[in-house]
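Below is how a single chain appears once it has passed through the pipeline. First comes the sequence as given, then the structure the pipeline wrote out for it. We keep one example in the README because the format questions we get most often are answered faster by looking than by reading.
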Amino acid sequence: MKIGIIGLNNSGKSTIFSALTNIPSDISPYSAQRKEPVHGIVEVIDKRIDFLTDLFLPKKKIYAFVEFLDFPGLSSSEDRKEIFSASSLAAIKTADALSIVLRNFTDLIIDESLGAPDPVSDYNLIESELIISDLIIVENRLAKI
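Resulting structure:
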């Protein structure tokens, strides 16, 4: 399973990604803007698999795994017409599930540039952009039909 972690800039995506995958990432408020998502794979250890392995003695034991994708922060600035670029939308659509991270904490440095946290507004902004991108895809497919 591939889970995409998305959210606005400085919302805590990389911190959550690091906690889930144990892969360190740059989490400073002034970190360089990256273009590609960071991949991390976590093996899901399950005692039931161990029990079945002991019982049936297979040649191999393979645990399930979850792939996490830490997508670059999405810009919510007013001068942009959309928060998703075409390349980030294409990458987001490869995920099986999306985990939306919303900023609900105060930080003096981040609050200076982004203002006070407003998770409801941030969620509505991200949801609207996802809906609009889906509508564009539907319109293009209808035009082809």
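The first helix runs from residue 13 to 21.

See the next section for the split statistics.
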